[in-house]
Design a protein that fits this description.
Blueprint lengths: L2 H17 L4 H8 L7 E8 L5 E5 L12 H12 L6 E6 L2 E3 L2 E3 L2 E4 L24 H12 L4 E2 L3 E4 L34 E7 L8 E6 L5 E9 L5 E5 L6 E9 L5 E6 L3 H15 L3 E2 L4 E2 H6 L9 E7 L3 H11 L2 H12 L12 H15 L23 H14 L3 H7 L22 E8 L2 E10 L2 E10 L5 H16 L2
Helix pairs in contact: 3-7, 3-8, 7-8, 7-11, 8-9, 10-11
Length: 492
């Protein structure tokens, strides 16, 4: 062996262990009893140079929970553009004579998740007039057209997506709850309603007083009133079935306590809601409301020969993405994924869902960017599926690219909440030296705590991904441990 070759091998043998060295703060975390049997993955990458500052088991596939929303929103900004707006059109078929529409009125959806959304009004907890602004616009359009009577029906056309509103990989406990609302070609009021209860004394069963908006659902009430401050209750049920089961406990002596559930069939509900509102405004409608799903099941295809009365547009995508990441809005994220799927052309004979098409689009996009998508396993766009997997390495690569090379860089970074003051990370790192210096998306579910985003140190910006699964401590203790880890990595 020549001396130069020997010297090179000797240097390499020293450098290799150093490169693979586990950061000391990570070693400290892994020594904790509650991390025995847990999975932990970390990567910190310099955005400008691409150099890896820290890493531990960065190629491991880990459940990301809502951190997956960063992948969905980044892809949406890149492919749809930050100024993209979802259109929803009011259309009609048949003939209009002497104020009578001899035909049907259609609501043509494009998957807009923001129609009547609480997150676009100042008061996010009530149905203020601002949430009904689209109804006012649509009613005015009919009045301008001189329509006083409709001989047909109000029909929702949600056909842009399939009827698989929720991923088959979602857990049963999520379905029926407001955060487990499905995403469809037409969405309304965040696909959620507030159920009002009068709770009374401990040990009694609460009384259901009604819902906002008013929605026809049969409830099986197995709730119990207890001396607790907050509820431990769930609303359980399946898409399209107007039947819900109420389980758990609610606080005592609350005359107007609310639980939030999902609207089982948003497209049909929107047709029903618009029918009622138009009748209140003096427009007669002869036949009951319907939707594409019901008509298709009955073998009645919708007419395509229609005239447009008015089109309502969503806010620009940059605002939608901001809400998605700051509020961790599952419906928004899944709607974005399905919208991305419209860009995918199925192969001849290929049978694929709206979710599946979106996933194919996302994977293809990042592959073209030169990122290995092998560890990216998506079953939705929101991270609600426990089967979703991603690696810290993939996230760090994607985040670095979005910050340094994407035309939508500013919109994406502005969508991530500031740790210590905003969104789901309002309490994370609060009062620490990293408050205001970290832009992070959080992700959590049972025994899952994850963070991904950016940390600034001096004049350098770093893409950060840290993912913890299957720890055995309480969630608050895990959050504190991850705070301590980040502070140790970035304040030394």
């Amino acid at each position: 062996m020549t001396k130069p070759l020997f010297a090179a091998l000797l240097i390499f043998s020293f450098l290799m262990p150093l490169a693979a060295q586990t950061p000391q703060p990570v070693k400290q975390l892994l020594k904790a009893d509650y991390m025995q049997g847990a999975t932990f993955s970390l990567m910190v990458k310099d955005v400008q140079t691409g150099d890896v500052l820290y890493e531990y088991d960065a190629g491991r596939e880990v459940t990301p929970a809502s951190v997956l929303k960063t992948v969905t929103t980044a892809t949406a900004l890149e492919l749809l553009g930050e100024d993209y707006r979802f259109p929803t059109s009011l259309e009609y078929d048949g003939k209009l004579t002497d104020g009578t529409l001899h035909g049907n009125l259609y609501i043509k959806g494009s998957g807009d998740p923001t129609l009547g959304s609480a997150h676009l009004t100042p008061d996010k907890n009530s149905f203020t007039p601002a949430r009904y602004a689209f109804i006012t616009q649509w009613t005015a359009a009919l009045q301008r057209a001189g329509i006083h009577k409709i001989t047909g029906s109000v029909i929702s056309d949600e056909s842009i997506f399939d009827t698989e509103g929720i991923s088959p990989k979602w857990q049963h406990e999520d379905m029926g709850n407001y955060y487990g609302a499905g995403s469809y070609g037409l969405n309304i009021f965040d696909n959620a309603y507030a159920l009002c209860l009068s709770t009374g004394n401990a040990g009694e069963r609460p009384v259901i007083e009604g819902s906002e908006p008013d929605i026809t659902i049969r409830y099986h009430n197995y709730l119990t009133v207890a001396t607790v401050q907050t509820d431990r209750a769930v609303i359980a049920g399946f898409p399209f079935l107007p039947e819900r089961y109420l389980y758990g406990v609610v606080p005592a002596n609350r005359p107007a306590y609310t639980l939030k559930g999902d609207i089982p069939d948003p497209a049909l509900f929107l047709a029903e809601f618009l029918t009622e509102q138009l009748r209140r405004n003096g427009i007669a409608i002869d036949n009951p409301p319907s939707c594409h799903r019901i008509q298709a099941e009955a073998g009645h295809p919708l007419s395509r020969e229609r005239q447009t009365l008015v089109t309502t547009y969503s806010p620009p995508l940059r605002q939608i993405v901001r809400i998605t990441n700051e509020r961790s809005h599952n419906l928004y994220a899944d709607a974005l994924l399905k919208t991305l799927g419209l860009r995918y052309t199925p192969a001849r004979g290929e049978v694929i869902t709206s979710f599946g098409r979106g996933i194919k689009t996302v994977q293809s996009h990042w592959q073209k960017k030169g990122i290995d998508t092998t560890p990216l396993r998506m079953y939705d766009g929101s991270g609600t599926a426990l089967a979703d997997k991603v690696s810290a390495a993939f996230l760090a690569d994607m985040l670095a690219g979005m910050a340094d090379r994407s035309p939508a860089s500013e919109a994406f970074l502005q969508s991530l909440p500031k740790a210590g003051s905003e969104g789901t990370v309002a309490n994370f790192l609060r009062g620490s030296s990293l408050q205001g210096k970290a832009l992070l998306k959080s992700g959590s579910m049972t025994r899952v705590r994850c963070y991904a985003g950016y940390v600034r140190k001096g004049d350098r910006q770093y893409a950060v991904a840290l993912l913890a699964n299957n720890y055995s401590c309480k969630d608050r203790q895990m959050v504190q441990a991850l705070e301590k880890l980040l502070l140790a990595l970035f304040t030394n």
